């Protein structure tokens, strides 16, 4: 189970020079440039971003997402968790970051300090050999407690449509609400640091 001493790791961590898709390069989302800004502190990672799903439709994917989130939460660092089942905007964002126009995206995907680290297998391997701890050293600690407004889900019901994603206009009938996502949710103003 344990790797013999002196054996090199087979896990590859992508850096800025290895692949153009390994970095956030999407300019349409306001927080992505902030995630990539490594000029200020090139040696210190600034953030952990995890794209995952909380839907249990595909059990192996759900289990992988849950395992990766559990591993990362064990380090008690601040994690920006982006649940694709809560907002399809996260899927679009991830596809643009990875340079995929459309198609199937495997989850979870983990980025540390603007660099793509990997999916479930890579995170589990890095954790087993102790490399993941080195990657998250120096990150800001996680804030204790749970948000009172959203209960830690980072989304709340839309004030305009009350979560139905439909509005009734007397002249034209029902129309889609433009203030919320397809699930009738908006980002929690209390705990969400970055707008979509």
TrEMBL record:
It comes from the Eukaryota. Coiled coil: none annotated. InterPro entries: Glutaredoxin, Thioredoxin-like_sf. Residues 49-117 form the Glutaredoxin domain. PANTHER family: GLUTAREDOXIN DOMAIN-CONTAINING CYSTEINE-RICH PROTEIN CG12206-RELATED, GLUTAREDOXIN DOMAIN-CONTAINING PROTEIN. This is Glutaredoxin domain-containing protein. It comes from Carpinus fangiana.
């Amino acid at each position: 189970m344990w790797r013999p001493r002196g054996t090199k790791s087979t896990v590859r961590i992508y850096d800025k020079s290895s692949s153009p898709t390994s970095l956030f390069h999407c300019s349409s989302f306001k927080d992505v440039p902030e995630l990539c800004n490594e000029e200020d502190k090139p040696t210190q990672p600034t953030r952990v971003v995890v794209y995952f799903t909380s839907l249990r439709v595909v059990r192996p994917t759900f289990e992988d997402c849950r395992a990766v989130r559990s591993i990362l939460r064990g380090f008690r660092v601040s994690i920006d968790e982006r649940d694709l089942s809560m907002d399809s905007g996260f899927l679009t964002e991830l596809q643009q970051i990875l340079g995929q126009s459309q198609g199937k995206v495997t989850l979870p995907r983990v980025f540390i300090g603007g660099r793509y680290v990997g999916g479930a297998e890579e995170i589990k391997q890095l954790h087993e050999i102790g490399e993941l701890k080195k990657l998250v050293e120096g990150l800001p600690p996680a804030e204790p407690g749970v948000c009172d407004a959203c209960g830690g889900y980072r989304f709340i019901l839309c004030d305009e449509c009350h979560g139905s994603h439909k509005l009734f206009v007397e002249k034209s009938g029902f129309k889609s609400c433009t203030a919320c996502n397809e699930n009738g949710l908006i980002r929690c103003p209390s705990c969400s640091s970055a707008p979509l």
